[in-house]
Design brief:
Layout lengths: L4 E5 L6 H16 L6 E5 L5 H8 L5 E4 L16 H6 L2 E6 L2 H7 L3 H13 L3 E6 L3 H5 L3 H13 L11 E4 L13 H19 L7 E5 L4 H8 L6 E4 L6 H17 L4
Parallel strand pairs: 1-2, 1-8, 2-3, 3-4, 4-5, 5-6, 6-7, 7-8
Bound molecules: 1,3-dihydroxyacetonephosphate (13P).
Length: 260
């Protein structure tokens, strides 16, 4: 039984007081909910510490949006896994499509980050997903498979319970055009079978999140799919009410046992 995870990726949004107010509102509301879901907030690096304080003694966990694979060194402007661990991070988003697109991150570079995060005792949320032209050319699975192979090849099965994968089709991110539940399940099922071919039934412990225009009105239908174990939320995570509605959708579906 996989506990659903709903993670908010704030991207490059909020200033300090907005970050604190948003985190406090979410933490307060989540504290009053049942524990059938894990909730994580990923603010910009500079607000990790105040957000950590806002989340203290609540079930909401802290995550980062990116990391450098080396533990320390002369890498001006970068942030390491031990730094993130020391401010209380539990999760780290790795290989987001915006990092791939705007910052030239390759699968090999992302693979190093995944390993560094696991070695440092944190949990990577590895993002994969095809672009619109790749889907239109019928290459969506091929692209996602190459991203999985590039980032995860050779990973030992002991790491699997710590691993989270987010399927975020690039054409759905910030566009208001989410993948349909069928499209999401089709790709999530494919990712699950790719993992099972490598790691057998151990692959069933990996949570597969959907991301891309996830909103209160489409979350439940997506979360009801058997291989959708929660969501990575961008825009809708910047308002406490919409993020909480998505968290509640995850709780509602998990308490019904999904749609096996
Ligand atoms: P949106 O929810 O704004 O489409 O962003 C999704 C995303 O990229 C989360 O990482």
């Amino acid at each position: 039984m996989r506990i659903p995870l709903v993670a908010g990726n704030w991207k490059m949004h909020t200033v300090r007081q907005e970050a604190i107010t948003l985190a406090e509102a979410i933490a307060r509301a989540v504290s009053g909910l049942s524990a059938a879901v894990e909730v994580t907030l990923c603010p910009p690096f500079v607000f990790l510490e105040p957000v950590r304080q806002a989340l203290a003694d609540t079930p909401v966990q802290l995550g980062a949006q990116n990391v450098h694979p080396e533990p320390e060194g002369a890498f001006t402007g970068e942030i390491s896994v031990p730094m993130l661990a020391s401010v209380g991070c539990r999760y780290v988003i790795v290989g987001h499509s915006e990092r791939r697109q705007y910052f030239g991150e390759t699968d090999a570079w992302i693979a190093r980050k995944v390993r560094a995060v696991l070695q440092g005792g944190l949990r990577p949320i590895l993002c994969v997903g095809e672009r619109l032209e790749e889907r239109q050319a019928g290459r969506a699975r091929q692209v996602v498979q190459a991203q999985l192979e590039g980032a995860l090849d050779g990973l030992s099965e002991e790491a699997l319970p710590e691993l989270v994968i987010a399927y975020e089709p690039v054409w759905a991110i910030g566009t208001g055009q989410n993948a349909t539940p069928q499209q999401a399940q089709e790709m999530h099922g494919f990712i699950r079978s790719w993992m099972r071919a490598r790691w057998g039934s151990k692959a069933d412990s990996v949570r597969l999140l959907y991301g891309g225009s996830l909103k209160p009105d489409n979350a439940a239908a997506l979360f009801r799919q058997p291989d959708v174990d929660g969501g990575l939320v961008g825009g809708a995570s910047l308002k406490a009410s919409s993020f909480l509605a998505i968290v509640e959708a995850a709780i509602g579906v998990s308490s019904q046992g999904g749609e096996a």
